[in-house]
Design brief:
Length: 315
């Protein structure tokens, strides 16, 4: 009897947790979808798109046309295309543009395995839809704390963050121009050399401080005490289709930093093509390296001599 009561309370607790989680996620990723090339469908969203007054709220309309795909319009104004190959779309949220003090509409678009977010405003001169910002995205707007989370697009107070995203992307580009190698890697050969370049420790420290949460940092594992003569840091971007990175090598005995490897950005399949499973043993780095960096990427196990920078495939 005691076991049954405990199990009853347990299932009640689990049910409450599930309902709470579903309700929380549903607020973020609720999808009132429009299928772009099926029968005509329409969804709308009211907001202060023209001026901030409860009496002056107008609406954006997202709708499908079997011949022209998905379109968007403001009130009864002219239609605007959201993407020629878009197969479905949904309205995510309304946020306030602090520069114009008017609302923007955030929508999410799907086109096969390609996904995009768009922020729309109203052109004050014409009353027509005005695309303010567009960016490749994950397959949905996720809850807060995720790399595709709503909190990366809106503040908790409901302000738009799209104005900040191009600045962060440009910071990463500038950092990579300073940190990455110029010479390409001849990854098609069974043996080849990395063309490394020295980097000042102050340069690395400054960029890590500036980039902050805009990057992901990964470290190698060290198999033995002798491997502690080396430190390896992999810096990766987070923006889909623009998430390049770099692998930095610190020779502790010489107190010298090198750029070891440029990480290519991915797009439709993966975020990027980093060195995977990095393990340092003696003066060698064992890792899995992309040799054909497109789609999902084609990886091969390699060993890299950290003194000569010779790379050998471990077929």
């Amino acid at each position: 009897m005691f076991y049954c009561i405990r199990m009853k309370h347990y299932f009640t607790f689990v049910l409450l947790v599930l309902v709470t989680n579903i309700a929380s996620v549903a607020h973020v990723v609720a999808k009132d979808w429009v299928s772009c090339f099926n029968e005509q469908e329409t969804i709308s969203q009211h907001g202060d798109f023209v001026e901030f007054s409860n009496d002056q709220q107008t609406q954006f309309v997202l709708f499908s046309d079997p011949e022209n795909g998905c379109l968007i319009k403001h009130e009864n104004g002219s239609d605007a295309e959201i993407g020629d190959i878009t197969t479905s779309a949904y309205i995510v949220e309304v946020c306030q543009d602090t520069e114009t003090e008017r609302d923007n509409l955030l929508i999410h678009l799907s086109a096969g395995q390609h996904f995009t977010i768009q922020f729309w405003a109203v052109d004050p001169a014409t009353g027509f839809p005005l695309l303010r910002y567009s960016e490749a995205w994950g397959d949905q707007i996720a809850p807060a704390g995720n790399e595709w989370g709503l909190d990366t697009l809106l503040t908790a107070e409901g302000n738009c963050l799209w104005q900040e995203r191009p600045n962060a992307q440009q910071l990463l580009k500038t950092a990579m121009e300073e940190l990455q190698n110029v010479a390409p890697v001849e990854a098609g050969k069974s043996e080849f050399y990395f063309s490394v370049q020295k980097v000042a420790a102050e340069t690395i420290s400054n960029w890590l401080s500036i980039l902050g949460d805009e990057i992901t940092l990964e470290n190698a594992r060290y198999a033995d005490d002798s491997a502690n003569a080396w430190q390896i840091i992999q810096i990766l971007g987070k923006t889909l289709c623009d998430a390049e990175g770099v692998v930095l090598l610190h020779d502790k005995r010489q107190q010298t930093w090198f750029t070891l490897y440029n990480v290519p950005s991915g797009c439709t399949k993966v975020l990027n093509y980093p060195l995977r499973n990095m393990i340092v043993m003696d003066d060698q780095l064992f890792a899995s390296m992309c040799v054909w960096c497109t789609g999902w990427g084609d990886y091969r196990d390699v060993v890299i001599n950290l003194r000569t920078f010779r790379v050998r495939k471990l077929d």
